[in-house]
Structure formats: structure tokens, C-alpha cells
Specification:
Length: 102
């Protein structure tokens, strides 16, 4: 069975177009619901977190190292470390744990 790549591209383009255009054409008034406003406000952050969290755990050779680095990053950010300090501490923890565990 031969698959036509152009059909897949056309379907993908149509779905992407519909997802982006339908809200603009159907919702013309200002959204007054506080729940819906907060939902739409936080949606990009939720999507980013959902895509990033599994990558944090499985980017290393050992998921334990990723989980510990995540914990260290959360704790250091909680205590006011800068983004650079958090990333350096997480990378150092992953390096040390990868040397120990593997």
C-alpha cells in the first residue's frame, strides 16, 4: 500500500488552520468568564510544562539523576537562585550522579 505524503501534509495543514482560525471567527466578543480567561492565560505555561517535564527525567541515562536534578533545581529556585545558578547546579548534579550511578 503506497502512501501519498501530500495527503498527510494537506490534512496537517487543514487541522492546524482550523485550530487557529475557528476561535478567531467564532469568538468575536470579549471573554468575560474569569475561569475561561485564566484558562486561556495559563494554557501556554501548562503546555510548556507538560512537554518539558518528561524531557527532564529522560534526557539523562538514569531517570534517578534527572529526578534529583529536578528536585535540586526546584529547591535552589525556591531559595532565590538565578536562572543561571539553577541550571549550573542541575547540570552539576546530573554530572556527579551519572558518574556515580553509571
Amino acid at each position: 500500500m503506497k502512501h501519498n505524503i501530500y495527503i498527510y501534509i494537506a490534512i496537517m495543514a487543514a487541522v492546524s488552520f482550523i485550530i487557529r482560525v475557528l476561535p478567531l471567527t467564532l469568538i468575536r466578543k470579549q471573554i468575560k468568564s474569569p475561569f475561561l480567561q485564566s484558562f486561556l492565560y495559563y494554557m501556554p505555561y501548562i503546555t510548556l510544562a507538560v512537554m518539558t517535564f518528561p524531557a527532564i527525567l529522560y534526557a539523562t541515562q538514569s531517570p534517578i539523576a534527572g529526578a534529583v536534578a529536578l528536585g535540586v533545581g526546584i529547591i535552589s529556585a525556591w531559595f532565590g537562585a538565578s536562572l543561571f545558578q539553577v541550571s549550573v547546579s542541575c547540570c552539576a548534579i546530573v554530572l556527579l550522579l551519572e558518574l556515580i550511578l553509571i
